[in-house]
Specification:
alpha/beta, seven-stranded mixed beta sheet, three-stranded antiparallel beta sheet, 13 helices, binds pyridoxal-5'-phosphate
Length: 397
């Protein structure tokens, strides 16, 4: 199997697996237990929290464990906004139109709860404009949420610039707007420092960087207003009730530390491989059209490409039959057949958007795999188009 869908999920890293093993076996205690077995589980959670905080430049008490990226994002958007409304401060939220559905649907839930939401578009390359975000701030705006790296086309968003604008606004007018970023795809590829980024909240999902599925991280800056999404026991400093997923948390910490440590080694190498893939596809497939921004303002590992007159689901299935795993648009929206909201927001014509597939490389991807993936893709595109590459002409020139 040739797996080029690391943006959908990654294999569990050996470091995460061995860190988790005791907590799946003999160390099964509930961290709330007062006896030794429980205290050991609590110590493991505390240790993981410290290490994750260190990897992100945060304080341990600013790290909340959740069930995944989706929950972290929902908790940030709903938790901060509803706390601000409860305090009578405002009910306007700004999100980018190219957020993952976790962010977009949380914003829609806020609308149902009576919030006003402004959706900020992007340019043709998939970049959100920081100035446009600032210009959309109203007197009652409480929260901005813009992802750090887009999961479909890999574009890096100006989160740091948005944070600076919001801080300047605060200094000038006293109006404090909180900032959340979905950094789910950035972890393991970019160094993440929450203070440098200037964000109040940041979401991560362990299975995107070699950790287990079902464990998420929410960084919530000290003193950020927050109303818990899940209530019950007092776990996670009263911010997320429910018995902790101890093994998942321990695995997330091991995976994040390893991924962060390996960034200088993996990122430049994988960026080169991504460019090799681009060149091979371009050379072998007429009218291959790449979606997304310049190579230095994108994640190293994502390549989104459209093949006119090829329907992406058919291509993904055909490639699967040849042993190559890639994604059509975003894996999380694969059950719906609508063209990607990200590509549409970028102004990609529908006939190209429905033919888009996403390759996402991993830290261990090799040049041989990339060349083989391009070869298989070229063969299947040619077959689906029903004519040889040399004689094929697009239906719409
Ligand atoms: N945000 C982004 C950018 C993603 O790519 C994903 C998953 O693909 C998520 C959030 C959701 O993460 P999870 O499925 O782990 O809840």
């Amino acid at each position: 199997m040739l797996y080029l869908d690391h943006a959908a999920t990654t294999p569990l890293s050996p470091a995460a697996r061995s860190a988790m093993a005791p907590y799946l076996e003999q160390e099964f205690g509930n961290p709330s237990g007062l006896y030794e077995l429980g205290r050991r589980a609590q110590a493991a959670v505390d240790d993981a929290r410290e290490r994750i905080a260190r990897a992100l430049g945060a304080e341990a008490r600013e790290i909340i464990f959740t069930s995944g990226g989706t929950e972290s994002i929902n908790a940030a958007l709903l938790g901060i906004s509803t706390a601000m409304r409860r305090a009578g401060i405002g009910r306007h939220v700004i999100v980018s139109a190219i957020e993952h559905h976790a962010g977009l649907h949380a914003a829609q839930t806020l609308e149902e709860l009576g919030f006003d939401v402004t959706y900020i578009g992007c340019d043709r390359e998939g970049f959100v404009d920081a100035t446009e975000v600032l210009e959309s701030v109203r007197p009652h705006t409480v929260l901005v949420s813009v992802m750090l790296a887009n999961n479909e086309v890999g574009t890096l968003q100006p989160v740091q610039a948005i944070a600076e604008c919001l801080r300047a606004l605060h200094r000038r007018t006293g109006h404090r707007v909180f900032l959340h970023t979905d950094a789910v795809q950035a972890a393991g590829w970019l160094r993440l420092d929450v203070r440098e980024l200037g964000v109040d909240a940041l979401s991560l999902s362990a299975h995107k960087f070699g950790g287990p599925k079902g464990t998420g991280i929410l960084y919530l800056r000290r003193a950020t207003p927050f109303r818990p999404l899940l209530v019950g026991g007092g776990q996670e400093m009263q911010k997320r009730a429910g018995t902790e997923n101890v093994a998942g948390i321990v695995g997330a910490a091991a995976a994040l530390e390893e991924a962060v440590h390996e960034i200088p080694r993996h990122s430049p190498r994988v960026r080169e491989l991504r460019e090799l893939l681009r060149a091979e596809l371009q050379r072998r497939i007429p009218h291959a059209t790449f979606n997304g921004g310049p190579r230095d303002r994108s994640l190293p590992n994502i390549l989104n490409v459209s093949f006119p007159d090829v329907e992406s689901e058919s291509l993904v299935m055909a490639l699967d039959a040849r042993g190559l795993c890639v994604s059509s648009g975003s894996a999380c929206s694969n059950s719906t057949w609508e063209p990607s909201h990200v590509l549409l927001a970028m102004g990609v014509p529908i006939r190209l958007a429905v033919g888009a597939i996403r390759f996402s490389l991993g830290p261990n991807t090799t040049p041989e795999e990339v060349v083989e993936a391009a070869r298989l893709t070229a063969e299947e595109v040619t077959r689906l188009r029903g004519s040889a590459a040399s004689s094929w002409r697009p239906a719409v020139p």
